[in-house]
Amino acid sequence: MKILVCGGAGYIGSNMTSLLAAEGHEPVVFDNFSKGHRAAVAGMEVVEGDLADYARLVDVLGRYGIEAVMHFAAFIEVAESVQKPLKYYRNNLANTQNLLAAMETANVGKFVFSSTAAVYGIPQTVPITEDAAKKPINPYGETKLAVERMCHYQCEAGKLRFAALRYFNACGAGNDDALGEDHRPESHLIPLIVQAAMGQRADIKIFGTDYDTPDGTCIRDYIHVDDLCRAHLLALDKLSERTELVYNLGNGQGYSVRQVIETVKRVCGKDFNVVEADRRPGDPPVLTSDATRARQELGWQTQKPDLEDMVATAWKWHTQHPDGYAEKSKCK
Question: 173 with 317: CB under 8 angstroms?
């Protein structure tokens, strides 16, 4: 298929683009390079553009004969979304509405959406199923849920087939460890710890050590980016049979902050300073997924479920790219 990958130069988007090409699809990256890296999509078909530009979207969808769209172009920083909610509503919601409108005009009916476990907010029970209450506690989660609802009604109107994939914590380097995580600023736990192990950070902070968990620190569900991308391919195929899909994507196995820190130390063979700090507001003690639906309906199985394997791929990429992707590859 000819697939437009919005945000295709970002972390998950670039890994998805690589997998699509390897599987014989024809991906076209659409990115404004505010966050993405040109080096991550070298050799791929790339269109520089913004999701706010309706006319450009309609032109690109038609000119390339696009048959499906994958959307990875959201802003993802929870804390920033609280400080700058309008920025998140504009990009994550209004720009996605613009994209869906362009798809309708161009008669492109399949849409795979990068959603998030943040739509659940603070869950009453874990592991979390897709039917759990959706009560996001920040603008990031709210905008993702609003897009899901918008897609639902567009589907009800007979104008869209869509899959909403609710990620837990994507991590690791994909495409044989060639495509890693390079957010600026970085806020994800594993790359932050790896940076501490590399001496690029003075320490790693644990926010809260008195949670009702075995070691007192928060527990989260991690999933390797390769496994995440494979689920997108399966969901895209499933849209030939079904019009609306919603799946959790996680391992179902939770690891505490302390466990992740110790795993990085063991894999990297490095020690570093760990600082205990106060809890952050809104951090649930445990967030783990029930991905039974994806396994049963898509036949999806994680191939890299072990935390050590995830950390090892991240460590390999970061040590080979100590400064991340070259800054000259970024659009200023």
Answer: yes
Q: State how far the alpha carbon of 220 is from the alpha carbons of 59, 108, 133, 162, 168, in Å.
A: 41, 36, 19, 27, 8
Buried b (16+ CB within 10 A) or exposed e, 73-100: bbbbbbebbeeeeeebbebbbbbbebbb
DSSP secondary structure, 263-317, as one string:
HHHHHHT----EEEEPPPTT--SEE-B--HHHHHHH----S---HHHHHHHHHHH
Determine the residue type at 263.
Answer: T
d(CA 297, CA 248): 12
If residue 175 lies in a helix (H) or strand (E), which one and from where to where?
none
Q: Which CATH architecture has domain 2-173+222-251+290-303?
A: 3-Layer(aba) Sandwich (3.40)
Catalytic residue among 11, 120, 140, 325: 140
Q: Considering the entire predicted model, what is its pTM?
A: 0.95
**CA angle in degrees (0–180, nearest 5) for 87-57-94:** 25
**Does the annotation count 140 as an active-site position?**
yes
pLDDT digits (tens, 9 = 90+) for 256-301: 999 999 999 999 999 999 999 999 887 889 999 999 999 999 999 9
Max CA pair span of the chain: 56
Report the sign of the C-alpha dihedral through residues 63, 64, 69, 72, in that order. negative
- How confident is the model over 44-99, as pLDDT tens digits? 999 999 999 999 999 999 999 999 999 999 999 998 999 999 999 999 999 999 99
Q: Do 296 and 238 form a contact (C-beta atoms < 8 A)? A: no
Residues 6+ apart with CB under 8 A from 76: 116, 140, 183
| Domain segments of the chain as ranges | 2-173+222-251+290-303
Q: Are 267 and 196 in contact (CB under 8 A)?
A: no
Please check whether residue 303 is in contact with residue 226, taking contact to mean a CB–CB distance below 8 angstroms.
Answer: yes
SS3 assignment, position 147:
helix
Contact 163, 247 (CB under 8 A): yes
